[in-house]
Amino acid sequence: MIEIIVIIDYGAGNLQSVKNALDSLGVQSRITQDPKEIESAERIILPGVGSFGYLMTQLREDGLERPIKEALKKGIPFLGICLGLQVLFEESEESPGVKGLCIFKGKVKCFKEGKIPQIGWNTVKPVKKGIFKEGDAYFVNSYYVTPEDKKIIAATTEYFQEFTSAVQKRNLIAVQFHPEKSGRFGINFLRRWLEC
Amino acid sequence: MLAKRIIPCLDIRDGQVVKGINFGDIKKAGDPVELAKRYYEEGADELILLDITASYEKRKTMIDVVKKVARKIFIPFTVGGGIRNVDNIRNLLKAGVDKVSINTAAIKEPDIIREASEKFGSQCIVVAIDVKQKGLGWEVFIEGGRVATGIDAIKWARRVQDLGAGEILLTSMDKDGTKSGYDLDITQRMSETLNIPIIASGGAGSLRDISDALKYGKADAALVASLFHYRTYTINDVKKYLKKNNVEVRL
Question: Does the ipTM surpass 0.90?
Answer without folding.
Answer: yes
